[in-house]
Specification:
Layout (H helix, E strand, L loop, with lengths): L10 E5 L4 H12 L7 E8 L7 H17 L3 E8 L2 H12 L3 E5 L14 H8 L4 E4 L8 E5 L4 H11 L8 E8 L5 H6 L9 H32 L4 E7 L2 H11 L4 E6 L13 H8 L3 E6 L5
Parallel strand pairs: 1-2, 1-4, 2-3, 4-5, 6-7, 6-9, 7-8, 9-10
Antiparallel strand pairs: 5-10
Helix pairs in contact: 3-4, 5-7, 8-9
Length: about 300
């Protein structure tokens, strides 16, 4: 019987802004069975307008360090002058963390997506996996891994497979199939042909959806197998509809504590991808979210 390889030590960058969400992130990190010799760097950034608060911020950082040290986690602190998103990304590129952890402060806006929030910028522009933690934190009991079959989803599987999860965690793997085609669109579709009888349309739609469902079940089975190779047991969930909506509703109904998803990521050259699934999850999911980029993506 083969044994699983020992997990390597992790380097974690905690972006601590002093908010309740950052405190929730500290609690989450304290609950993780981190491999021996893992380290956490607690980083806080203050702007030129906050220079007078330097001493108070250092004191708060020291309190964060003390909380993590009581959990037996080797922790250091950094207090830097600059602009938060820029400094977090810059520091991460020098530090090469396995994971960036930060609170969800400033994300969920009442009147839609708040562009340019610190956490959102770090998710979009950093090349490292980013875990956005939401308060209140009640532990990691149920985790939802989202897969679409892309290389970015596979990267998320690889990262999750080496992530130090609490024992007994309930892992679900979810894939969302495309929404049912609209009748008017189908009538005009060249694939079906103008004037195709409704009954024939229905048959072709049903056949196409059956093929998609088989392929989706195969994808879920492969993903479960990949997780099993890491020693993780999971169950599959198959939905149809708008991906972000189905994921968020399922997470809410099932009281999911953490959603893990892959993302192709963006660079400043590529610009913003408004409406992407990962962006919607970061903004609107009621739980914590981990976004994993493809290896080497930026």
């Amino acid at each position: 019987m083969s044994t699983l390889p020992e997990q390597p030590a992790l380097k974690i960058l905690l972006a601590d802004d002093g908010s309740e969400h950052a405190r929730a992130a500290v609690s989450l990190l304290g609950d993780l069975p981190l491999p021996p010799k893992s380290t956490i760097t607690a980083l806080r950034v203050f702007t030129p307008l906050q220079i007078s608060e330097h001493a108070a911020m250092q004191k708060a950082l020291d309190q964060t360090q003390a909380r993590l040290l009581t959990r037996g986690i080797q922790t250091s602190t950094e207090l830097l002058l600059g602009y938060p998103a820029e400094k977090v990304i810059e520091y991460a590129d020098q530090y090469h963390p396995d994971l960036i952890v930060m609170g969800a402060k400033g994300l969920r806006a009442t009147l839609g997506i708040l562009l340019g929030g610190v956490a959102q910028q770090v998710v979009e522009y950093s090349q490292w996996p980013v875990l956005i933690v939401r308060a209140p934190y009640h532990g990691l009991r149920r985790l939802l891994l989202v897969t679409d079959g892309s290389s970015y989803s596979q990267r998320a599987v690889d990262v999750l497979g080496q992530f130090p999860l609490p024992s007994g965690i309930d892992i679900r793997v979810m894939h969302v199939m495309s929404p049912p085609p609209h009748a008017v669109f189908l009538a005009d579709s060249s694939r079906l042909g103008i004037g195709t009888p409704p009954l024939l349309q229905d048959e072709r739609i049903a056949a196409a959806q059956a093929i998609e469902e088989r392929e989706s079940q195969d994808l879920l089975a492969r993903t479960l197998g990949a997780l099993q190779a890491f020693g993780l047991q999971a169950t599959s969930v198959l939905k149809r509809g708008d991906a972000a909506t189905e994921i968020i509703h399922y997470a809410q109904d099932q009281q999911i504590d953490l959603i893990v998803a892959g993302s192709r990521g963006l660079s400043q050259v590529k610009g913003w991808l408004v409406g992407s699934v990962s962006r919607k999850l970061v903004h609107y999911a009621g739980c914590s979210v981990m976004i994993v980029k493809g290896a080497g993506e930026k």
